[in-house]
Amino acid sequence: MEPFVTMEVIEEAAAAVRRRLADSPQVGIILGSGLGGVAEAVESATVIPYTEIPHFPRATVGGHAGRLRGSDEQFYYAQLRLEEGETLEAIEAFDQLRAAYPGSRYLDAAIFGTGRAYFERGEYLVAATHFERVTNDFPNSKYRDDARFWLARCYDRVALPARLDQKYTLLAIDQYSQYVVEFAHGRHTAEAEQRLAKMRARLAEKETLIGEFYNHRHRYKASLLYLDRVFERYADTPLANRAKVARAKALAGLGRNDEALALLQEVVSSTDEEQREKAREELRKLKERLADESMAADDAGAAATEDEDAAAAGGIG
To answer: Contact, 69 vs 99, CB < 8 A?
Structure first.
């Protein structure tokens, strides 16, 4: 059973507070959850941690900071926790700031800081919701540049390899693209462009893999549907030459040999060493097949001529 609060206990707590104050307060206001913003109207406030007041209970309710402080100190406290890698404490402190001071000038910063804390914890999709809120709800925020970039990074981190679903790759591309357009000279522009190129290359790889899959099953028309998309959308990616080799196989499979030969010659003339060797091998196979088919056609023609001659000779006889 909790002990009664005696006058002695009250006096000890009051004395501790008095020692921290320059003047004796004339008015006391008790603020409930969500009303901490009223404290922002106080100038030159004296901040007293609950833990420094004898017998004072610790705050356990969400939105109760556990300190007699304004939004400035609460924000800097949360930022310090984040910078020191104490992500759970930072999230809690930012949440307390948002709950206690809903109209605070730090609201966008608190939301952004919460997103960074979740990102550092590897909870990328949770972080994304916070960054997205900054970009959507605070068009004039100084954190909008960073929020757009980190939103893209969240989707980038959860994007899967090319063989799997590319939902998050597409979302990352969308956010990186928006960043590059909106912040052409932003602090993250160079990195955003690099990541955008890698994400586009992953989509090109996805299309190329599907094209190669259909080639292995001799479904060349289906293969061309995917490989043609590589040239339409991702011709500037490192996958272009690999897609050309796969496309040449599909064209040859459909009997479009001249197109296949031209495409393979193009890759052989490129600086892509790996694909150049593959193109040479495919070119050799295709030329051998065409030579064999030509020889077979010549033999068939000669045999037909002999049969016609024999038939003619028999008719004469």
So the answer is: no
Amino acid found at 182: E
Among candidate residues 97, 101, 102, the one with its CA nearest the CA of residue 114: 97
Per-residue 3-state assignment (H helix, E strand, C coil) for 270-284: CCCHHHHHHHHHHHH
Q: For residue 26, what are the contacts with CB-CB under 8 A and spacing of at least 6?
A: none
* Contact by Cβ (8 Å): 55, 12: yes
Top pLDDT among 66 and 254 is at 254
CA–CA gap between residue 125 and residue 150 (Å, rounded): 11
Angstrom distance (rounded) from CA 31 to CA 29: 6
Is residue 94 within 8 A of residue 115, CB to CB? The reply is no
Q: Which pLDDT tens digit goes with each residue over 147-181?
A: 999 999 999 999 999 999 999 999 999 999 999 99
DSSP state of 44: S
| DSSP string of 119-157, one letter each residue | HHTT-HHHHHHHHHHHHHH-TT-TTHHHHHHHHHHHHHH
Please tell me whether residue 49 adopts helix, strand or coil conformation: strand
Helices (H), the chain: 7-20, 71-83, 87-100, 107-120, 124-137, 144-158, 167-182, 189-216, 220-233, 240-253, 257-268, 273-316
- Sequence-distant (≥ 6) Cβ neighbours of residue 230 within 8 angstroms: 204, 207, 208, 211, 237, 239, 240, 243
Query: Cα(261)–Cα(197) distance, rounded to whole angstroms?
Result: 30
Q: What is the CA radius of gyration of the chain?
A: 36
Identify the pLDDT of residue 53: 76
